[in-house]
Amino acid sequence: MTNGTGLDRDGCFVREGSLDRVSAPFAPVVAGLTARLAERFGPGRLHSVYLFGSIPRGTAVPGVSDLDALLALRDEPTDADRAAARAVEDELDAAYGQIDGAGLLLYGVDRLLSEPERHDMGWFVACLCTPLSGPDLASRLPRYRPTSLLARETNGNLHRDLPGLLERAAAATTATARDRLTRGVARRLVRTGFTLVMPRWGGWTSDLGRSAEVFGRYYPAHAEQMRAAARAARTPAAYPGLLDELLAGLAPWLADEYLAVHGAKAPRP
């Protein structure tokens, strides 16, 4: 890795995260995930399992961070698979006070390895996911660089999703619902803002604060709003009015700028 940019000497992504970085408070959570997946799915359905997010990066905070995992299934997920995943999420959330919820993503192996997903979910698995069990799909994927193509295919759909986010904000009437949505929207805007400038900066980071700082170098007029989003992504309850501000200001500007710089993400089936 060179200069803290998340890239190796060839300019390719260094895979972030490692099971060795899972801190002691979260080791039982990971073990509980493994046991519950074996009970609910088994080898007949599961090809491989990956952790992502703060826990495998070693930056998770007990009582604040969530558990994120991706399940690569042998074929496309069914309604029964999704119900099983929700049950595991609920069981983990109830059993472990160290986490503030659990989220499981389900994908079929063929889709993860498909050409349309090559620079989206394929990149995600190869670069941002830590193998937990099963054969590692990264061995069947290319090496990646911080290109405009990668930016477009990972985050070039904010313009499509913005109307739905506005509807969800209008429907979120409780403090808990608004906090959750604020956290999700803020995270998305920071990550989208970072990938907007990622090819120019020439590197990668998953740290939200650093992402906002890098973005601000290229768009100083929007730097303070992006820094506020990064703060709200960590402690949304401290910023009760920010959700509406972001959706009315930063989000539509960012959606338009992304289209102008990188273009739109290719539609998925």
TrEMBL record:
InterPro entries: NT_sf (IPR043519), Polymerase_NTP_transf_dom (IPR002934)
Signal peptide range in chain numbering: none
Alphabetic keyword roster: Transferase
Top-rank taxon, per record: Bacteria
Source species taxonomy: Bacteria, Bacillati, Actinomycetota, Actinomycetes, Kitasatosporales
Keyword Transferase: yes
Name this polypeptide is given: Nucleotidyltransferase
Span of domain Polymerase nucleotidyl transferase: 42-89
GO molecular function per UniProt: nucleotidyltransferase activity
